[in-house]
Amino acid sequence: MKKTIIVSSPGKLIIGGEHAVVYGRRALVTSIDLRLYMQLTEEENESNEQLMNIQFHDTNQNYSINLLDSNESYPLEIQAIFVIYNHFKSFLSEKKQLNIQVHSNIPIGAGLGSSAAYSVCLVGCFYLLCHKTLNQDDINQLAYQVECLFHGTPSGIDNTISTYGQSLVYSRTLKKHLNFQLSNLAILDTGIPKSTKRMVSLVRTFIENNPHEGEQILNDIELCVDNMIEHPDEINQLFQRNQQLLKCIGVSISEIDNIIETLLKKNISTKITGAGGGGCLIALTHSFTKEEILDLLKDHPIKSVQFVQCGVEGLKEEQTFFS
């Protein structure tokens, strides 16, 4: 008998506190209405091998693997499947074939939590297959292990917001839900490749080499976060201050600085969201339209401008798979 499980999970924006959150400071993060969808099917298997077919619709990549034959030469997305399969295999029948399909409207490698949404959906699918219902706490903990495969030593903020959704004040010792909304919030995708792992390592090196200055910057970033929550009317100035501090620890680049300076001339406050070094920015656009933003930035590297809704639902079951 064929069994089908479909789940989805949202992307995220870090509104304030990126990088400082790795060192125990508070960050403000929100889920957004860009989602990753995953379908897991279990069906009869006439072979003696534990087989799986994986289809990534957005990149047109397909894999056929033997789940009993882990291989580090596979991409991280496939290695993650081995990790999760090995965690749940005592609950699974070896006489079943598993198939996964993935579709996402979260840009990959742009600082919007695409790998976390993938990790959370992967764990969620296997969890439902084995336990019938979703336990967000269990899923979040296991998804963090998968995120470590992708990013080394991440803060855990991405998998947490992708699991629970809504908006959160987050640190490793705090997870507080907020009713936090921003209107006219746009994501500016620079299209510049970036590596979260490399940026996290760069910041670690900076702090190790400049311990006093580094600690002060981390504290100031956390103060920005606290003020964003307590004084939302000052959000424009706080965006600018948070960005200045991120620049101090080396995660901004000249292309990003130029975009931010251009928009600031129109009183549009813009900052890095996520790791930096490329990827996406977020902007408080006031009454400017997408077309007007693109026109302002016609001489800058901008792949897309997208307005988003904040504070959406986290991991959930779906009735249909979007392919």
Automatic annotation (TrEMBL):
Residues 87-165 form the GHMP kinase N-terminal domain. Its EC number is 2.7.1.36. Its main location: cytoplasm. The lineage of its organism: Eukaryota, Metazoa, Spiralia, Gnathifera, Rotifera. Signal peptide: none annotated. GO terms for biological process: isopentenyl diphosphate biosynthetic process, mevalonate pathway; sterol biosynthetic process. This is Mevalonate kinase. It is an enzyme of class 2 (transferase). Belongs to the GHMP kinase family. Mevalonate kinase subfamily. NCBIfam families: mevalon_kin. Residues 233-295 form the GHMP kinase C-terminal domain. One of its GO terms (cellular component) is cytosol. It catalyses: (R)-mevalonate + ATP = (R)-5-phosphomevalonate + ADP + H(+). InterPro entries: GHMP_kinase_C_dom, GHMP_kinase_C_sf, GHMP_kinase_N_dom, GHMP_knse_ATP-bd_CS, Mev_gal_kin, Ribosomal_Su5_D2-typ_SF, Ribsml_uS5_D2-typ_fold_subgr. Pathway: Isoprenoid biosynthesis; isopentenyl diphosphate biosynthesis via mevalonate pathway; isopentenyl diphosphate from (R)-mevalonate: step 1/3. It holds the Pfam family GHMP_kinases_C. It comes from the Eukaryota. It is found in: Cytoplasm.
